[in-house]
Amino acid sequence: MDLEKTLAAELARAAHHAPRPAPDLRARIETGHRKRRRRGLGLSAAAAAAVVIGATSVVSVSLRETTPDPAPPLIAASATRPTSVPTSVSPSVSPSADWPLAEKTFPPIERVWPEAVHSLPGKLPNGRPYHPELFLDAHTVVATTLKDGHADKMDGLWAYDLRTRKARELVRVTPPPRTVITSSFISAGGGRLAWWTVRKDRGELIVDIWTAPSTGGAQRLVTSFPGVPRFGGIDLAIAGDKLVWSMWGKGGLHQVPFTGGRPQPLLRTAGYALVDWPWVGSPMPAYDKQTKGTIFGSLRNLETGQVRKTSVRAIGCSITWCLRQGWAVPRDGEGAMRALPGIPDAGSAHAPARDRFLVLSQLDGTARLRGQVLLDLKAHKIGALGVKPKADGSLSTWGVDYRMPGLFGFQKDGRWVVVNLDAIK
Q1: Cβ–Cβ under 8 Å, residues 67 and 264
Q2: How far apart are CA 278 and CA 304, in angstroms?
Q3: How far is CA 2 from CA 5, 51, 249, 314, in A?
């Protein structure tokens, strides 16, 4: 457990202190330091090599062991293990409790989830680069555009229609002067879009939270407040007629109605972070150091009061699943453990997106990155992204994150590939 937590901590630290990638990766900027977006990070060859070389035994165990390390009695391991595994998994076949290991191949995601995977042009019809953010419905993608390609100069929210291949500007975004950070994600709900920015004001960092109608219209400032933690951002959600959020690495939830006003703390949420409204979790990711205990080992539903804890030893948990060294384990300890055919990316290492999806990096026989797969823990399916490492050994894809608003996207051959995670049944 110490080894696997060390590996997770090193990945998170490497991600946050990596050099600024290309503009399309939309790296976060905070007071002069270059930060990785929470959306995820394509593992670079250098970062991977540092982890693999520095902890060869950890990676070896994660990818190649055929028997899990000793686990608490609550974990029900698979009764039998196959003596051999197929070289690929048919999209019509659900693998057993143990998936093939990382060196095996899988069908492309377009075959596994044809109803959810869409190919989009690399630019809007007006020639501008854009970034897909979320699905408003089954046919409409909300995208952001950046002024001069700068990661923290978002200047527009657009609606792209998958049927007509036409786009229209929903909101003309105007960040305030001296903005240094813009939202990692756009939130949607109740007919509204919401996002946040951070600006410098007389040596202090100020958060501004904005909203606009999802059908289009003018941006409106809802609230402002000081006190951004040094990790540089917040997790924001729409909950009925109010906005709720928690600060990265700090904990405690706050709320404000859409009508505006001063932010108010939510009672009994100290030490908790927003996971997936109305679920909050503790302990939260520390980002700059190893988190003590299992990340989100304790969950609470703020609407019903339900509490979910786990006795599973793990790195981090979602509502249903916990991740441990090379395995996904049910939070309640009931049911079979599932072997992971690769290494979770830095975003996935905390908890699966939508409580079921992980992006895993696969290594070849020489411990070099050779590709990534999207894994669905609920439906027991795996699809290959089909993106090969670049000449420098890096992968220019994002991972999936437990805060993601239902869209997973990456660039391939000059086009966008977007996956509507909520369309996968």
Answers
A1: no
A2: 9
A3: 5, 15, 21, 10
Quote the Cα angle for 141-176-252, to 5°: 75
What are the structure tokens assigned to 239, written together? 């909950």
* Lookup: tokens for 86: 């197929």
Q: State in Å, rounded, how far the first CA of the chain is from the last one.
A: 33
How much is the pLDDT for 368? Answer: 80
| Residue 38 near residue 294 (C-beta atoms within 8 A) | no
Domain containing 238: what range?
Answer: 2-423
Residue carrying the six token digits 């992006």: 359
Mean pLDDT confidence for 305-315: 92
Q: Where do runs of H (alpha helix) occur along 86-179?
A: 109-112
| Omega before residue 278 within 30° of 0, cis | yes
Rounded-to-integer distance, Cα 187 and Cα 244, Å:
11
- pLDDT reported for residue 103: 53
Which residue's entry shows tokens 């939130």?
A: 187
Which of 366 and 211 is assigned the larger pLDDT?
A: 211
Domain count, the chain: 1
Could you write out the three-class secondary structure of 155-172? EEEEEEECCCCCEEEEEE
Q: Is it the case that residue 264 has pLDDT exceeding 90?
A: yes
Q: CA-CA-CA-CA torsion for 49, 54, 57, 59, nearest 10 degrees?
A: -40
What confidence score (pLDDT) does residue 403 get? Answer: 83
DSSP string, 378-405: TTTEEEE--PPP-TTS--------TT--
Per the structure block, which two tokens stand in for 111?
Answer: 């075959």
Does the structure show a pLDDT above 60 at 139?
yes
Q: What is the mean pLDDT of residues 169-198?
A: 93
Residue 327 has which token pair? Answer: 């395995």
* Nearest 10 degrees: Cα torsion 242, 399, 13, 153: -60
Q: Are 87 and 104 in contact (CB under 8 A)?
A: yes
The two three-digit tokens of residue 423, written as one number: 């369309």
What ranges in 152-248 are assigned the alpha helix state H? none
* Percent of the chain scoring above 90 in pLDDT: 51
On the question of pLDDT at 230 being above 80, the answer is no
Distance CA 380, CA 185 (A): 27
Closest C-alpha among 345, 340, 395 to residue 369: 395
The Cα–Cα gap between 346 and 257 comes to 33
